[in-house]
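Quick one, probably user error.
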């Protein structure tokens, strides 16, 4: 891809490690002037003739003033992350020292990098395609084993390889159809329509699988919101504390103790579930603060992916529970009914009481019985199985939207084949399909889209 974005010729510098005090800080230079700048600042030896992928210990000085003793790593383009000459300066982790090194680099011709500019240059220089570049940001943001696996597989080109294969097959058939148009007077057919039809069916299957994976990908990337709702004193806060194995929420016998929502994160099998303990929902309350809490509880319930409706098995009838369950199902949430305060000695009696209602999970939040089983139910309600390390999982909403357009284009191509439409119209549909595939990989893109994508990266990456 030809580099046309403004400022890409500049030599850039930024702190590549998190800001703040630490043992070391790594400052990264990238661009044509990177080696010249470091050679000017590094007083211990001449680095101009040193080979790539070597490290050197010495002193950094600016205008004769000693700044720090550092370790310098050299990476000559194109065998570097960005494809350009790259220098990494490992200095001591004092914020003051780091700023002094950055200022020295800027004083000698570098400019401060924008968010994501290093990865953007890697993309522009052909080191990564756009899906791999976006996976870098996903890996940096990953906080579970599942999100790490998905990002690593995409960085290694798993998703890109699927799209590349599909794109190449479509291009080959498109070329044959275009050739037919050149010989339209001869009435010849270079593209085997039967094989092309099989290709389209295969491509549709692949695209559908990718689109279906987005639901799981979204869960892996963003987690699952779980609203714990119920009447006052049903045991919502006790359940939250038990799931987290810590006393996060205040528990008391006084109805309406929880006045506002409390949010915490629970990791189940590598997936993050954001638990939201809500104020108890009751119809007749005169407490203005409690009423605000109840209103927020209802809002959280509507926006949650999963609703845990917890009820006291001793304080509700089967008829009332059935009415509540039917009402909750109307909000299009995944609803899990949790019967709390189920004493082991009376379990069979309680189960018989609610025998006409399916999918109730009985627990004792106080005694911590049935909790592991409930965690399994919560997990399976949104994640049927975890992906393997070699699974392509779509986690990016931009990719999903483009794949939806690919699917529509493939449907149009298939319809065109069924109706034997002319080759020129068929070629248009193929070009449209190729356009959306190329949008995902970045083979075609515009500066505004790239700026938006890379602006979400941290500075220094």
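Nope, works fine. Designed sequence:
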């Amino acid at each position: 891809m030809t580099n046309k974005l403004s400022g890409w010729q500049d030599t850039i510098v930024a702190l590549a490690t998190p800001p703040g005090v630490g043992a070391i800080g790594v400052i990264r230079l990238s661009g044509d002037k990177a080696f010249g700048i470091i050679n000017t600042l590094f007083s211990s030896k001449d680095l101009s003739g040193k080979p790539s992928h070597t490290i050197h210990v010495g002193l950094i000085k600016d205008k004769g003033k000693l700044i720090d003793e550092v370790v310098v790593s050299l990476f000559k383009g194109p065998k570097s992350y960005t494809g350009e000459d790259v220098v990494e300066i490992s200095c001591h982790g004092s914020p003051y020292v780091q700023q002094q090194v950055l200022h020295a680099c800027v004083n000698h011709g570098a400019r401060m990098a924008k968010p994501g500019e290093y990865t953007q240059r890697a993309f522009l220089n052909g080191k990564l395609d756009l899906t791999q570049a976006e996976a870098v940001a996903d890996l940096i943001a990953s906080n579970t084993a599942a999100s790490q696996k998905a990002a690593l597989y995409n960085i290694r080109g798993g998703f890109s390889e699927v799209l590349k294969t599909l794109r190449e097959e479509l291009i080959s058939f498109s070329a044959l159809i275009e050739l037919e148009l050149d010989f339209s007077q001869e009435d010849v057919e270079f593209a085997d329509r039967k094989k092309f039809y099989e290709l389209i069916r295969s491509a549709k299957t692949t695209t559908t699988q990718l689109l279906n994976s987005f639901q799981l990908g979204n869960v892996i990337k963003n987690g699952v919101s779980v609203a714990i709702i119920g009447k006052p004193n049903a045991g919502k806060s006790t359940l939250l504390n038990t799931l987290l194995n810590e006393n996060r929420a205040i528990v008391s016998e006084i109805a309406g103790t929880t006045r506002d929502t409390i949010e915490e994160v629970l990791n189940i099998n590598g997936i993050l579930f954001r638990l939201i303990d809500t104020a108890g929902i009751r119809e007749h309350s005169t407490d203005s603060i409690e009423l605000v809490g109840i209103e927020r509880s209802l809002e959280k319930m509507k926006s949650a992916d999963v609703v845990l409706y917890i009820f006291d098995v001793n304080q509700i009838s089967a008829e009332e529970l059935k009415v509540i369950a039917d009402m909750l199902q109307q909000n299009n949430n995944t609803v899990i009914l949790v019967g709390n305060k189920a004493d082991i000695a009376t379990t069979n009696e309680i189960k018989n009481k609610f025998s006409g209602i399916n999918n109730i999970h009985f627990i004792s939040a106080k005694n911590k019985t049935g909790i592991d089983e409930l965690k399994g139910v919560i997990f399976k309600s949104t994640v049927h199985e975890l992906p393997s390390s070699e699974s392509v999982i779509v986690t990016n909403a931009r990719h999903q939207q483009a794949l939806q357009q690919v699917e529509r284009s493939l449907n149009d191509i298939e319809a065109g084949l069924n109706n034997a439409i002319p080759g020129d119209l068929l070629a248009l549909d193929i070009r449209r399909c190729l356009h959306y595939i190329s949008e995902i990989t970045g083979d075609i893109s515009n500066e505004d889209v790239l700026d938006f994508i890379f602006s979400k990266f941290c500075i220094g990456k």
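Confidence is low (pLDDT under 50) at residues 249-260, 280-294.
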